[in-house]
Each structure stands twice: as structure tokens, then as C-alpha cells.
Design brief:
Layout lengths: L6 E3 L14 E4 L2 E4 L16 H19 L7 E8 L5 H11 L6 E6 L9 E8 L3
Parallel strand pairs: 4-5
Antiparallel strand pairs: 1-2, 2-3, 3-6, 4-6
Helix pairs in contact: 1-2
């Protein structure tokens, strides 16, 4: 099997990986982020504030990983969102729209039975690397 070109991305401004995965991987001009949880990177604790506070922190963590890899939220082309409860979808969208602008990236949003550490949201993305 041929090795693909890939480079690991790590940011001190995002929570450390708590398992056998990287915060992000760069390959062929794209940065693929792992799912970002609403954890304070300094304490490793879940932030307070319900879905609003957790969405903000997850997006801040995603932004930190993207920036560490030479990209940004503006360069996102695909986002996957995992919500614990779809009743949080309107508030999630409100916060999400404060962080991103048109043209918005393509996005999937699904409700899941559970998330790590019982958080309310997890967000991952694929972004183009800035030139």
C-alpha cells in the first residue's frame, strides 16, 4: 500500500487528543479536523452555558486547530455537526451563524444518542489550506 502525504496538526489552543487520533490532518491541500468538543483547552473541563456556550467553545476549538494548520473558519468547505438533542438546533444555528459567513460551508447535522463526556455538541470540519 502506498503511503499518502499527510501531516499532523496540533494546537495548544484546543483540547489535547484524549485517544489515538490527531486534532487534525493535512493532506492534498485540505485540513481534516477531528471532532471538537466544548472543552476548555486549559482545564480540559466541559464549559458551562448549555448549547450556546458549548457551541461557542467547540467552534473556538475548531478555529484553533484550523489556524494551527494554516487555514481558518472562512476556508471550511464541509462541516459535520453532532447534536445530542435536535431541540438545540435553533440555538446552535444562531451561534454557528455568528462564527461563519456566506457562502456557508456544506453541512450535515445529526442527532446522536450520546457524545463523549456527555457534551451537547461536537463539530468537525474540512477546510482548504490558505495559500
Amino acid at each position: 500500500m502506498k503511503n499518502i502525504d499527510k501531516k499532523e496538526v496540533n494546537s495548544q489552543k484546543a483540547p489535547k487528543a484524549v485517544g489515538p487520533y490527531s486534532q487534525g490532518i493535512i493532506s492534498k491541500g485540505f485540513l481534516y479536523s477531528s471532532g471538537q468538543l466544548p472543552l476548555n483547552p486549559s482545564t480540559g473541563k466541559i464549559v458551562e452555558g448549555g448549547i450556546s456556550g458549548q457551541t461557542q467553545q467547540a467552534l473556538d476549538n475548531l478555529q484553533a486547530v484550523l489556524e494551527a494548520g494554516g487555514s481558518s473558519l472562512e476556508n471550511l468547505v464541509k462541516v459535520n455537526v453532532f447534536l445530542y438533542d435536535m431541540k438545540d438546533f435553533p440555538e446552535f444555528n444562531k451561534i454557528y451563524a455568528e462564527y461563519l459567513s456566506e457562502p456557508y460551508p456544506a453541512r450535515s447535522c445529526v442527532s446522536v444518542k450520546g457524545l463523549p463526556m456527555d457534551v451537547l455538541v461536537e463539530i468537525e470540519g474540512v477546510a482548504v489550506i490558505s495559500d
